Sequence to fold (201 residues):
Amino acid sequence: MVTDLTCRVARPATPADFERLRQVLMGAFAADPVHLWMFPDPASRSRRQARLFRRVLAIYWHSGAIWTTDDVAGAALWEPPRQGGPTVTQFLDFVLSVVPVFGCRALSVVRAMAPLSVLHPPEPHWYLAILGSEPSRQRSGVGRALLAPVLRCCDEQGLPAYLEASREENIAYYERYGFEFVAPYALPGGPSVYRMLRPPR
Fold:
């Protein structure tokens, strides 16, 4: 795991935090339009979300950076800099790790999400895969704390940051931290996500 960043407010997460972070992310994404599209069955949604976040946290522990706060009120999952998006091998490894979570929706979800992997900026960049906080703690500065360490690192290293916002109203939120709207991407048969890029300051 990448842990070479330090911040007085946020800290690198550890496996001891993962069960709590799984619950926090389930709450944060309970009404997320992309998650509602990925998991359309209300009866199985929470169970499938729990499995998804459990696997994603394990993946980012080994090959990314996971930041949380001292009270474990949120999480930011980042992929460290690389040229462009994931390689075919990296994408397939990720898909094989998470695809069982989607059940009969697996093929549709993979087909819809795959084009996003080639829409990353071509230059090395930090990729914010997930940012979520406990619903009761939203708008209280948790997101700002979680973003700060890697955005500071981006500025120090002269690297951009990239993300895909799952709600149009989140565009303004990320613009406060220097992200600029690039373009929407409509998931086939689903909602749009909003690609955003933050140049280094």
Notes: The helical segments are 18-28, 33-38, 42-63, 88-98, 106-113, 142-157, 170-175.
